[in-house]
Predict the structure.
Amino acid sequence: MRTTNELRIAVFPGDGIGTEVMDACLTVLQQLEHHVGGFRLITESLPAGANFYRETGTDITDEAMQKARQADAILLGAMGLPDVRFPDGTEISPHLKMRVEFGLYAGVRPVKVYPNVRSPLSDRRSREIDLVVLRESTEGLFASAGKGEVIEDREARETLVITRNTCERLFDFAFNLARRRKARGGQGHVTCVDKANVFKAFAFFRKIFKERALLYPDISTGFNYVDAMALDMVRRPWDFDVLVAENMFADILSDIGGGIMGGMGMAACAEIGDHHALFQPAHGTAPDIAGADKANPTAMFLSAAMMLEWLGNRHELEPCLRAARRLETAIETGFSKGAIQPMEFGGPHGTAEVTRAVLADFGA
Ligand SMILES: NC(=O)c1ccc[n+]([C@@H]2O[C@H](COP(=O)([O-])OP(=O)(O)OC[C@H]3O[C@@H](n4cnc5c(N)ncnc54)[C@H](O)[C@@H]3O)[C@@H](O)[C@H]2O)c1
């Protein structure tokens, strides 16, 4: 339990719509702080990303990494631009460095359909979709990022890594998440998503999952190969609760999640480790709509709500928990009353208007 209610937040707006949704989010957080009371966020905006690389030749400074390390939480917009690349052809993505550097192994990506947001799935049960894709975020195929090789322009190799240490923590996180969701009326079910029929690494992943499952007899389990999971996320996503998967598999599945809940502007994300956590929308910098007040800031706001909840639980700060619920309620109410109709879904509201609707719900 900490003795102060002041929390330091390292803020990385990033590039493209990242900066737009972050501006909106900081306004919302400031007003929340004012209306809920009992906590104070000390935010510091730090440069990093593709534009910063273009200007300086560096994607992120050691100083900014250090400030992120010392902060109570990291809040990020989105980073990277398709036309700004390192000499090896890969994109500028310092947020991937942070995942590894800060041990953010648990990528929590809720998939939930909000009132009046039409899922592209025509089945009426699509309104009941409420699952979480839990993405291992430090190893798997991404362990090879920056280390892959192209041999004499003939073949390319990347190596996938699965470790017992990370899997045990990841699965414990999954079962505890399912428990918390069960306490709020959820199914209490974890599905292990892998490709254990073909690869030893995934048979190992599944073996560790089964070992850890024994410690959580109150939570039921299931298994799905990743290809079948892609099918089921379209065919019957309402049947699932927590899905846990390797980094690359869950990266792809969480975009299917973004699709079935209407669009990436609804896709929030928390990346959590034992000592640090980073919160960002799951979408990218959307160069196709950047600078036009068209971005849906909802995913950014929901990610900020996840940050407040994590901080509240970690530091036993009840006001932060209240602020998280207040923000979620404002968003839910905005969608159900039609006060939030993002352009992303053909509505009239751009970033500024969605932000105004959320602030109006606080009475600001
Ligand atoms: N975590 C990150 O920072 C992150 C994640 C993914 C992609 N990227 C980077 O972003 C850049 C663009 O990538 P992309 O086009 O593949 O993915 P993207 O998520 O930026 O865009 C995909 C599609 O979704 C739409 N979209 C995304 N977020 C939206 C929002 N909030 N409101 C309305 N529409 C939204 C875009 O307009 C686009 O049509 C690339 O440089 C990529 O590397 C960064």
